[in-house]
Amino acid sequence: MTARIRLLFSVIAALLIAAVPALATPASASSASIAETTFAHPMFVLGHAAPGFAQPNATPAGYGPANLQSAYKLPSSTAGSGQTVAIVDAYNDPTAEADLGVYRAQYGLPSCTTANGCFKKVNQTGGTSYPPTDAGWATEISLDLDMVSAICPKCHILLVEATSASYANLGQAVNEAAALHANAISNSYGGGDISDSSAPFYNHPGIAVTASSGDSGYGVQFPASSHYVTAVGGTTLNTASNSRGWSETVWSGAGSGCSTLNAALSGAAGFNTGCSKRAEADVSAVANPSTGVAVYDSTPYNGRSGWQVYGGTSVSSPIIASVFALAGNTASINNNYPYSHSTSFFDVTSGSNGSCSPTQLCHARVGWDGPTGLGTPNGTGGF
Predict the structure, then answer these.
(1) What H or E segment, with its residue span, contains residue 230?
(2) pLDDT reported for residue 37
(3) Where is the Peptidase S53 domain (predicted)?
(4) Which of 28, 187, 247, 282 is least crowded, fewest Cβ atoms below 10 Å from its Cβ?
(5) How far apart are CA 299 and CA 289, in angstroms?
(6) What CATH topology corresponds to 4-377?
(7) For residues 216 and 274, is the Cβ–Cβ distance under 8 A?
(8) Can you tell me whether residue 177 is helix, strand or coil?
(9) Phi, psi angles (nearest 5°) of residue 291
């Protein structure tokens, strides 16, 4: 069974309201039906970046590849060859490949198609009989594919579409992505905290698995709370007149907190997270829709299509998965690795996502904090 929740977006500068598929949060891990409980995709839309059609000679609003590569000092023009980033989402986006082509052409990125072997789309069992179309999830898919393209244009992209947004189907899609030899797998969805033993889909040694921390402020969600993933928080990213050229603060919508069910990461032991078990998040990237990213999606959703500006930790999860791919180390590391390379991040030291105790779980500080983890990428040294 599905419900409806309301997510914020803006047509011009003020935030309006849009309905998207919602999750049914389990009362507890022991009583939840994994086959029936569903996730929601955290997606925020900041209106149209241009009229609802491609304008190749116009610059869409929102950050594009050059902005993101500059902000995070990434070797996107030279690294990533031979790497595959998998995107796991629910339902079908019938225009995924075509929309990806529009985005990459707009920014002068090399084509990534089924024909040239760069792009592959499968269902959760690896076949080509796709699930029903869902316009809300289609926009999520376009966002995820565009972020891989922006960060790692030399990477191959694997899209795995789950039959529905249930734990079981999305989990099977993650397993399929791993079976198809993805180097990194991004998951832009989440639900209530549950145990890894109840949803044992994210433990894939040698593959970097990332998950969005959530878009509702302080509070933990799964699979970001899994012991086996890199939990990705969110920031507000702005240009600045400093040596970096950019500044970041906590995005107030980013999720954070302590799992009560899953084991802590050993790498986080020296960072005073305030959690006896798994702490969320580990790292972060831009997520505030007010400083969002340009995305192209032609499947109409709530009257919108074409160039739009997107935010949410739906943005930051595929960004971080793609940085893992740029680093090319996933076969030999796990999600503790960033903690032993914490100097390779831009520390985010201001902002909050709510009220909490201890305060580092929801307030930025020097070093690790809940909303942004260790910070945002400063090159690929932390990955």
Answers:
(1) strand 230-239
(2) 55
(3) 62-383
(4) 28
(5) 20
(6) Rossmann fold (3.40.50)
(7) no
(8) helix
(9) -125, 50
Residue 46 and residue 14: Cα distance in Å, rounded? 9
Question: How far is it, in rounded angstroms, from Cα 147 to Cα 159?
Answer: 13
Angle between helices 135-151 and 96-106 (to 10 degrees): 40
Q: Where are the alpha helices (DSSP H) in the chain?
A: 65-71, 96-106, 135-151, 167-179, 313-327
pLDDT higher than 70, residue 127: yes
pLDDT(286) > 60 = yes
Higher pLDDT, 40 or 144: 144
Percent of the chain with pLDDT over 70: 85
Distance CA 322, CA 186 (A): 9
Beta carbons of 257 and 206 less than 8 angstroms apart = no
Alpha-carbon span 289 to 314, nearest angstrom: 11
Which two three-digit tokens encode residue 138? 């289609």
- 197: tokens are 């033993």
**Total-model pTM:** 0.89
111-117 own/partner pairs: CB under 8 Å, 24+ apart: 112/149, 112/153, 112/156, 112/157, 117/156
Read off the pLDDT of each residue in 332-337 and give the average, rounded to a whole number: 98
| Over residues 276-280, mean pLDDT | 98
pLDDT above 90: residue 70: yes
Structure-block tokens of residue 349: 């030291």
- Give the chain's count of helices (H) and strands (E): 5, 17
Specify whether the CB–CB gap between 69 and 285 falls below 8 A: no
The pLDDT confidence band at residue 42, using thresholds 50, 70 and 90, is low
In the numeric block, the tokens 């993805």 are attached to 182
What span, in angstroms and rounded, lies between the C-alpha atoms of 279 and 182?
26
Residue 382 backbone dihedrals phi, psi, to 5 degrees: -90, 5
In this structure, the dihedral spanned by the alpha carbons of residues 134, 137, 138 and 144, taken in order and rounded to 10 degrees, is -170
Contact between 255 and 218 (Cβ < 8 Å): yes
Question: Which pair of structure tokens corresponds to residue 31?
Answer: 């009583």
The pLDDT value recorded for residue 59 is 79
Q: Which amino acid is at 108?
A: G
Beta bridge partners of residue 120, listed in sequence order: 158
pLDDT(240) > 60: yes
**What are the residue ranges spanned by the domains of the chain?**
4-377
